[in-house]
């Protein structure tokens, strides 16, 4: 195990692949530190890299499914610290994070069917491919030759440079970004206020008319509800009279014998009986209460009948008022009071536009002055950071056998924005006497890989919550350069988990874990196998990588590599 591996926050411990092209079934077990994946050309190392990219949310194609199979499956098991889980799960999965139980680690799984459809899972919970990709980006930093193009992206270069800022510079950049957004918001408000003067006058007249109309109407939701109730009574006055009169008649008919008399008589009988049996007392009291309640109801019903009368004129007046209020609701929306509040506020702003304009202009001017101060601080901090970055990368390039290559992080004036008023341009001069050109125009794929490795090594601390994967970092190199790259990868592996897919024995010998990909024919079909090698088997693989054959000379050389590489 590499030194410091016990402190890692993220380890990709296992990858399982089924039915991906030539890979029928393979399980790749990995360790903390530096892991090397080797194998003969065409054995399937690229397929393994492809499966890993698919697991991390890469674009799915039906061609990756092994011929004759219904689906291809990729699965990765990650061991993460609790702190990393708390940070990355909500950021990548949103609300779905609550459904994921990471007690035993994190398992990413992707299934691609023969017709190109894809399903993604995190600990058995179905997620979208974008969520899987977002989680993959936070767990793995993949560096293949195509991915190295990110190194030429101005935004990526600026982010790398800013990671070298000291605390004061980082604070200035943070404040600058926040103030920039605030000033931009003030500018938009000012533009709205400074819209055509004629249009503003028209809006003022229109708003004044609307406010006067609503205020003059005396609109209230309570009045609408009250009028609706009154209209219902007036429309149904005959039926209401009949019902109320029938109720009065049932309680106390003119010739007597109604419900009120019956309840009163029952109450009197029970009251006399309760003198003989106290148990009837409560019932007598309840009947007495019922009798009193019925008398109250009768009184109110008779009062109701006296007040209730057909009034066509009042009904017409209620209908008219309701029509007026309903018209306002149709005109200004269901919430007329809310519209009135908004109209008054907009009117106030327009009537005080000159005052607001002056306030916004002052706010913008004050913000621009402060932005200038902050931008200068950020620029100064970036100049210092660019020097530190270049010196560290330069030293690492020398260790990667690119000592003749000059690396520079130059600041270039740019249109001011939230991140300041410059961009950064990474440039190299491969050899003395040659022109210095931007990285994107000059470096080969292998150089880009080594420059990215040099940048990662230059960082104060590589992100411990990420597994770094280098695919084809050894493109176009050999000999001493290969030895240097292997040593640097091992150094990075002492600080975080690193996986390198390589064809160079000098790099593979530095690994703490060595996996071999091979191809063989089984039952008339070609299949790719993946196995971890140790001891003599590993020495023979290094011997094969050294000379293409295994003999005494290559085995002796392999032994020397293992001793010098610490493998």
Summarize the structure.
By secondary structure, this protein is α/β, with parallel strands linked by helices. It has 19 helices and 15 strands.
Q: What would you note in describing this structure?
A:
- The protein has 19 helices and 15 strands.
- The chain has 567 residues and is α/β, with parallel strands linked by helices.
- Strands 2-1-4-5-6-7 form a six-stranded antiparallel β-sheet. Strands 8-12-13-3-14-15 form a six-stranded mixed β-sheet. A three-stranded antiparallel β-sheet has the order 9-10-11.
- The model is unreliable at 1-8 (pLDDT under 50).
Whole-angstrom Rg? 41 Å
Shape: elongated
Q: How many individual helices?
A: 19
Q: What's the oligomerization state?
A: single chain
Helix content: 55-70%
What is the strand content? 15-25%
Offer a few descriptive terms:
567 residues; alpha/beta; 19% strand
Chart the SSEs and their pairings.
Layout: E1 10-20, E2 23-29, E3 34-38, H1 45-55, E4 71-80, H2 82-93, E5 106-113, E6 118-122, E7 125-127, H3 129-139, E8 140-143, H4 154-162, H5 167-193, H6 197-217, H7 221-235, H8 237-251, H9 259-276, H10 281-307, H11 312-332, H12 336-351, H13 353-399, E9 406-417, E10 420-429, E11 437-438, H14 439-442, H15 445-458, E12 467-471, H16 479-493, E13 498-501, H17 505-508, E14 513-522, E15 525-533, H18 535-547, H19 552-565
Parallel strand pairs: 3-13, 3-14, 8-12, 12-13
Antiparallel strand pairs: 1-2, 1-4, 4-5, 5-6, 6-7, 9-10, 10-11, 14-15
Helix pairs in contact: 2-3, 5-13, 6-12, 7-11, 8-10, 9-10, 13-15, 15-16, 18-19
């Amino acid at each position: 195990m590499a030194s410091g591996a016990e402190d890692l926050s993220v380890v990709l411990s296992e990858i399982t692949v089924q039915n991906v092209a030539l890979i029928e079934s393979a399980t790749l077990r990995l360790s903390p530190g530096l892991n090397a994946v080797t194998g003969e050309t065409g054995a399937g190392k690229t397929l393994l890299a492809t499966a890993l990219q698919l697991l991390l949310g890469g674009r799915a194609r039906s061609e990756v499914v092994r011929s004759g199979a219904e689906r291809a499956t990729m699965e990765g098991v990650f061991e993460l610290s609790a702190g990393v889980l708390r940070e990355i799960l909500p950021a990548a999965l949103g609300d779905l994070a609550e459904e994921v139980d990471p007690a035993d680690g994190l398992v990413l799984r992707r299934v691609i069917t023969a017709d190109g459809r894809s399903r993604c899972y995190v600990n058995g919970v179905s997620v979208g491919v974008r969520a899987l990709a977002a989680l993959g980006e936070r767990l793995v930093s993949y560096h293949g030759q195509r991915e190295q193009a990110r190194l030429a992206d101005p935004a990526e270069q600026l982010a790398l440079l800013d990671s070298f800022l000291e605390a004061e510079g980082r604070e200035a950049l943070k404040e600058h970004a926040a103030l920039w957004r605030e000033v931009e918001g003030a500018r938009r408000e000012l533009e709205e206020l400074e819209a055509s003067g004629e249009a503003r006058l028209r809006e003022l007249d229109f708003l004044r008319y609307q406010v006067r109309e609503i205020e003059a109407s005396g609109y209230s939701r309570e009045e609408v509800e009250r009028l609706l109730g009154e209209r219902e009574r007036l429309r149904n006055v005959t039926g209401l009279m009949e019902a109320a009169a029938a109720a009065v008649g049932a309680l106390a008919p003119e010739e007597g014998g109604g419900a009120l008399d019956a309840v009163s008589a029952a109450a009197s009988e029970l009251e006399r009986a309760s003198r003989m049996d106290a148990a009837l007392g409560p019932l007598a009291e309840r009947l007495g209460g019922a009798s009193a309640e019925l008398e109250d109801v009768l009184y109110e019903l008779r009062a109701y009948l006296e007040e209730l009368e057909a009034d066509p004129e009042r009904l017409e007046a209620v209908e008219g008022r309701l029509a007026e209020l309903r018209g306002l609701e149709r005109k200004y929306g269901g919430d007329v009071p809310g519209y009135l509040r908004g109209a008054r506020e907009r009117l106030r702003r327009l009537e005080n536009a000159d005052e607001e304009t002056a306030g916004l202009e002052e706010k913008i001017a004050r913000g621009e002055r402060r932005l200038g101060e902050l931008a200068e601080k950020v620029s100064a901090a970036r100049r210092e950071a660019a020097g530190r970055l270049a010196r560290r990368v330069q030293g690492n390039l020398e260790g990667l056998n690119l000592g003749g290559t000059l690396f520079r992080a130059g600041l270039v004036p740019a249109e001011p924005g939230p991140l300041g008023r410059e961009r950064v341009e990474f440039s190299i001069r491969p050899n003395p006497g040659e022109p210095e050109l931007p990285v994107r125009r000059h470096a080969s794929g292998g150089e880009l890989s080594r420059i990215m490795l040099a940048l990662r090594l230059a960082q104060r601390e590589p992100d411990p919550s990420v597994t770094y994967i280098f695919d084809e970092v050894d493109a176009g190199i050999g000999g001493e350069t290969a030895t240097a790259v292997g040593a640097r990868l091992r150094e990075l592996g002492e600080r975080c988990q690193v996986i390198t897919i390589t064809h160079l024995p000098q790099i593979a010998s530095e690994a703490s874990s060595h996996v071999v990909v091979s191809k063989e024919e089984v039952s008339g079909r070609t299949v790719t196998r993946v196995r971890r090698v140790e001891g003599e088997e590993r020495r023979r693989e290094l011997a094969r990588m050294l000379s293409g054959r295994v003999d005494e000379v290559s085995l002796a050389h392999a032994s020397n590599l293992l001793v010098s590489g610490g493998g």
